[in-house]
Design a protein that fits this description.
417 residues; alpha+beta; Beta Polymerase, domain 2; two-stranded antiparallel sheet; 12% strand
């Protein structure tokens, strides 16, 4: 059925010459092509439209041939599932479009699917996850709604297509996708049978790769409604499959409020860390279960080593801690301590401490090994020990001693006095 009309004058992305060129190519030999999914979802809800996905009745090989004939470059990014990426260029630059052939699932195992191509739009819609994602529109903005998903979209009702248990068993990642959509649109209208299916099949999350879980989780935990959604995940026994057993939703909630107070972008890594109440053991868990990068792992290990950083530090001590930790770890440590303290998330004293990393220019230690060699100290372990001791003295002086003052301390240090 037709659900609505997106007026091109209200949706300039529809008139993008690059999009129209790709649609021209795909329809040049009588085939069908429509925009599908997220672009329509965003447009209907008045949100910015970024990536634009296209569904077509043409097979992937035919789609590539038609695009080549139109002078467009295409790449076979997922031929087994009917997906190619098409590049189109205009005066606005080059834009990529993911083009996927209509398909139906033949065999699924909870992680992967074998598909068959089709020219039936209803069959393609029936294999999609949520009704709000089973919307298509043509080049003029006419919206096609085979499964009555338009009403679900405008009410933000998150509902699986067809039988919820069947949808989840086809791909267990859909459990996290349901909660990710709820974190974006609000948990108040999660379809009850869909939620029940996720709870029933939560053991299936163990079958998923860490990479797939990470992708959904990092988008979920930064959503506008992440905290109430994660509370639902905790209450239904789903959250431990992602973040382990020791959970502190209160700390996450306070961190989210503090980020808002400081006007910080939500940080998925720091939020994940603080959702756990087991700081010293959570880093290996996150490393393995969310496939952290080396840089992410190092960041969390440095945060654990930093310990608590509070406004109880004197001004001189604050600068010393900031110097030793560096700005990123200092900020992480302040936020982590703050969200676990019985103080308001909009506390001005804590904000002052956090802001030190931006307001105090970290000085550079004025000595190098060569400075000591020039004094006749032979290269070797002693140089490193002296530099470390001199840096400690420099920090203790609140970074006030200059190069000459530090060099004058070397004789006493070498004598051990």
């Amino acid at each position: 059925m037709t659900a609505a009309q997106l007026a091109p004058e209200d949706h300039p992305w529809l008139a993008d010459a690059r999009l129209q060129t790709v649609l021209d190519a795909l329809e040049a030999d009588g085939g069908g092509a429509r925009i599908v999914g997220g672009a329509i979802r965003n447009a209907v809800l008045g949100e910015p439209v970024g990536d634009i996905d296209i569904a077509t009745t043409e097979t992937p090989e035919r789609a590539m041939a038609l695009c080549a004939k139109a002078g467009l470059r295409s790449m076979p990014t997922g031929l087994a599932h009917g997906t190619v990426t098409v590049l189109a260029t205009s005066s606005e630059g080059t834009k990529s479009f993911e083009v996927t052939t209509l398909r139906r699932d033949l065999l699924t195992d909870g992680r992967h699917a074998e598909v068959a191509f089709t020219d039936d739009w209803a069959q393609d819609a029936a294999r999609r996850d949520f009704t709000m994602n089973a919307l298509y529109c043509d080049r003029s903005g006419k919206v096609f709604d085979p499964l009555n998903g338009y009403q679900d979209l405008i009410t933000k009702r998150i509902r699986f297509v067809g039988d919820p248990l069947a949808r989840v068993r086809e791909d267990y990642l859909r459990i996290l996708r349901l909660f990710r959509f709820a974190a974006r649109y609000g948990p108040q209208d999660i379809d009850e049978p869909s939620l029940s299916a996720c709870v029933t099949e939560r053991d299936g999350l163990d079958k998923l790769s860490a990479e797939r879980i990470r992708q959904e989780w990092f988008r979920l935990i930064v959503g506008k409604w992440a905290v109430p959604v994660i509370e639902i995940m905790a209450d239904t026994g789903i959250l431990p499959y992602v973040i382990g057993q020791e959970i502190s939703v209160d700390a996450l909630s306070r961190l989210a409020e503090t980020e808002s107070f400081l006007r910080l972008a939500p940080d998925p890594l720091l939020r994940s860390f603080n959702l756990s109440s087991a700081h010293r053991t959570i880093v290996p868990w996150l490393r393995d279960h969310l496939r952290l990068t080396n840089a992410e792992r190092d960041r969390l290990e440095q945060l654990v080593a930093a310990g608590r950083v509070t406004p109880g530090l004197r001004e001189k001590e604050r600068r010393a801690v900031l110097y030793r930790l560096g700005p990123e770890t200092f900020r992480d440590a302040v936020l982590t301590t703050w969200c676990r303290e019985p103080v308001a998330p909009d506390n001005a004293v804590w904000r002052e401490l956090f802001s030190l990393a931006d307001e105090w220019p970290i000085p550079t230690f004025p000595l190098r090994g060569n400075d000591l060699v020039e004094l006749g100290i032979p290269p070797g372990p002693e140089i490193g020990l002296l530099l470390e001791a001199l840096q400690d003295l420099w920090i203790a002086s609140d970074f006030s001693e200059d190069k000459q003052a530090l060099l004058s301390r070397i004789p006493a240090l070498r004598r051990g006095t």
